[in-house]
Design goal:
The strands form two sheets. A three-stranded mixed β-sheet has the order 3-5-4, with no helix packed on it. It starts with 18 loop residues before the first strand and ends in a 7-residue tail after the last helix. It is mainly alpha-helical. It has helices spanning about 25-35, 40-45, 50-55, 65-70, 100-120, 125-135, 140-155, 160-165, 165-170, and strands spanning about 20-25, 60-65, 75, 90-95, 95-100. A hairpin with a 2-residue loop joins strand 4 and strand 5 (about 95-100).
């Protein structure tokens, strides 16, 4: 998602980087919203809401494992300049903000809008405005639409922001802090 790396069945890129699964809406924020102390406590208490959020495929993307480590709980945003942190990867972060490459921004926006709407979980007011912009300037690709179809077959629901990106503009999204 963040770098456009291709990976093989062994979950490695051609450069040998290990690929993991990234939750676009961070699990630490999900645990807070589910009123758990941490991820393990949510699981052990069988917190249904958390378990549904954590397992939702619309919120997961394959990403280089090293980026998952660096992303931490940074919020998405724009950063001045072009200081790439990885070779051949337009990804920057600074002062708690991470800026993904342009072609990934719409995917990220639609995943965050979906999680916000589906689970009524908070999204920072500034980010909500930014996600609407990213959704508009980076419309769903054929690959993203195909992914939505596959997730529907596996999970039984669709991300409506992929099917109808204009929902982000039409629907009054609640701005939670």
């Amino acid at each position: 998602l963040y770098c456009g790396y291709k990976f093989n069945i062994a979950k490695k890129t051609s450069e040998g980087l290990l690929i993991g699964i990234e939750h676009i809406y961070p699990t630490s924020s999900m645990t807070k919203h589910a009123a758990c102390k941490n991820r393990m406590q949510c699981r052990e208490s069988r917190n249904e809401k958390f378990m549904r959020m954590e397992a939702d495929l619309h919120n997961m993307y394959p990403v280089s494992q090293s980026i998952i480590t660096y992303r931490n709980n940074f919020r998405f945003g724009l950063i001045n300049g072009e200081e790439w942190r990885f070779d051949n990867c337009d990804l920057e972060w600074k002062s708690g903000v991470i800026e993904p490459r342009q072609i990934a921004r719409g995917n990220i926006a639609r995943a965050m809008l979906y999680m916000h709407t589906r689970y009524n979980i908070p999204v920072d007011k500034k980010n909500l405005v930014l996600f609407k912009v990213w959704n508009k300037i980076d419309p769903p690709s054929k690959q993203e639409m195909m992914r939505n179809n596959i997730i529907e077959r596996l999970q039984g629901n669709r991300n409506p922001y992929i099917d109808q990106p204009s929902l982000a503009e039409k629907k009054r999204l609640t701005m939670l802090k």
